[in-house]
Amino acid sequence: MKTTPIRTADLQSSVIAVPPLARTPDLRLNRDANRALIRHLEAGGVRSLMYGGNANFYHLAPSEYAEVLDFLADTVGADTWVLPSAGPDYGRLMDQAKVLRSRAFPTAMMLPMSFPYTDAGLADGVRRFTDAMARPAVVYLKSDHYLKPATLAALAAEGRIVSVKYAVVRDDPAHDPYLRQLLEHVAPELITSGIGERPAIVHFRDFGLSSMTSGSVCVAPRGTTRLLSLMAAGDWAAAEQVRARYLPLEDCRDAISPIRVLHDAVTLAGIADMGPMLPLLSGLDDAERARVAPAARALRAADAD
After folding, report:
1. CB 278 within 8 A of CB 60
2. What is the three-class DSSP state of 136?
3. 256 forms bridges with which residues in the sheet?
4. pLDDT band for position 113 (50/70/90)?
5. Which residue from 51, 92, 193, 195 has the least number of CB within 10 angstroms?
6. What are the DSSP calls for 283-304, one per residue?
7. What is the pLDDT of residue 305?
8. Contact 51, 59 (CB under 8 A)
9. Predicted local distance difference test score (pLDDT) of residue 59
């Protein structure tokens, strides 16, 4: 596992995959299946793995946290960065910070709270979490005005934030006043496009972002890796052609559930058996699987061409 401090170049050099986490039928960690998915991603050029919502870290048992982190650190290649997550509540953040401090992960992502929180309370939490972890964090913005732009800028100026995963969904990603406001206070290289392939081109071309996360990269890593390269080169026409391959699966994720569809899509595409989802989530029903399977298999086949 890569353990050097995270730089802007690290964020820009690889798509940041956000994989699901495989489980056995009795909900134990499936080491073989998770290892197969990691090798699939690395073979496709991915060198950054973020374990958060898609891995269902929201419902990860505190007693299992260290085991999962140690497995991931031991399994990835020497040049692959693992970004675990913590929280979202304050109690878990602080307990998990103790585990993270004793490991070599260069950062961790704070899962977003939905309720209850305040701007000042979130800022206090970021400060206390980064102090306890003894390293900067990734902040996850998933809802409109989750943090005030000036608050985010202050935390960045204190060296407490290594990156911001921006994942506020818009009907039209080109019309995003919150992102515009954030960019008036922090540099674009600090903000990662955090909603996959669908808004990535707009985020890069119109807002100046230069890094991205993806879930569908778990099915087709070569294509998203190429998409990142084309966007960095400003070849928007070619980037649009690559992006189009991902939209059928992304349409399924948007219509059903981004997390649940991705979890089962990895299985349906024949990459690795992800098994059941950790409660309080559940896998796809038969009708949903019938809809997702063709999109997942077609995307993987296109990635092999």
Report:
1. yes
2. coil
3. none
4. very high
5. 92
6. ---HHHHHHHHHHHHHHHHHHH
7. 76
8. no
9. 95
Which parts of 25-118 fold into alpha helices (H)? Answer: 31-43, 65-75, 90-101
Residue 29 per-residue DSSP state: B
- Element counts in the chain: helices (H) and strands (E): 13, 9
- Three-state DSSP class for 195? coil
Helix, strand and coil content of the chain, in percent to the nearest 5, comes to 50, 10, 40
Distances 64 to 32, 70, 95, 152 between C-alpha atoms, Å: 17, 10, 13, 31
Q: Is 77 helix (H, G, I), strand (E, B) or coil?
A: coil
Tell me which residue of 258, 203, 249 sits closest to 227, measured CA to CA: 203
What's the alpha-carbon Rg for the chain, to the nearest Å? 18
The two three-digit tokens of residue 1, written as one number: 């596992």
Quick: pLDDT tens for 86-99: 999 999 999 999 99
Distances (CA, A) of 188 to 154, 183, 203, 205: 15, 6, 10, 12
Residue 28: count of CB within 10 angstroms of its CB: 11
**How far, in Å, CA of 213 to CA of 203, rounded?**
12
CA distance 132 to 280: 29
Which tokens go with 66? 């260290």
pLDDT, averaged across the chain: 97
Residue 116, preceding peptide bond in cis (omega within 30° of 0): yes
Query: Which CATH class for the 8-237 domain?
Result: alpha beta
82 neighbors 115 (Cβ within 8 angstroms):
no
